[in-house]
Automatic annotation (TrEMBL):
<dbReference type="Pfam" id="PF13340">
    <property type="entry name" value="DUF4096"/>
</dbReference>
<dbReference type="InterPro" id="IPR025161">
    <property type="entry name" value="IS402-like_dom"/>
</dbReference>
<feature type="domain" description="Insertion element IS402-like">
    <location>
        <begin position="1"/>
        <end position="43"/>
    </location>
</feature>
<feature type="compositionally biased region" description="Basic and acidic residues">
    <location>
        <begin position="52"/>
        <end position="61"/>
    </location>
</feature>
<feature type="region of interest" description="Disordered">
    <location>
        <begin position="52"/>
        <end position="71"/>
    </location>
</feature>
<protein>
    <recommendedName>
        <fullName>Insertion element IS402-like domain-containing protein</fullName>
    </recommendedName>
</protein>
Amino acid sequence: MFDAIFYVLRTGCPWRYLPATFPPWQTVFYHFRRLRLKGIWTLLLRALHQAERERQGRHPDPSAASMDSQSVKTVEESSGICGYDAHKHIKGRKRHILARLGRKNEPVPKHPIFRFA
């Protein structure tokens, strides 16, 4: 059952297009929906996240983070994906960075997050 649910989540295919090697899509969707409505997915992901942080020797609960963004001008010859920052009056892309505010004696990594506007 979990293999079928993960297949749909990983590939993004509609439930009705599940391969015949899995149970009927109605059964898989029924169990996915029950787990979602009961909050089991949230509990499972939270437990996995805490276990991974403990495995890395970090505090199980995440600390605060700071997010910042930057508008970058693009030219017409660049890739076709571009947006407009109305506040700064710039045509281009926005890029974001998420910096986790570490606890005492814990390194603070920076994770770039790219989102094309």
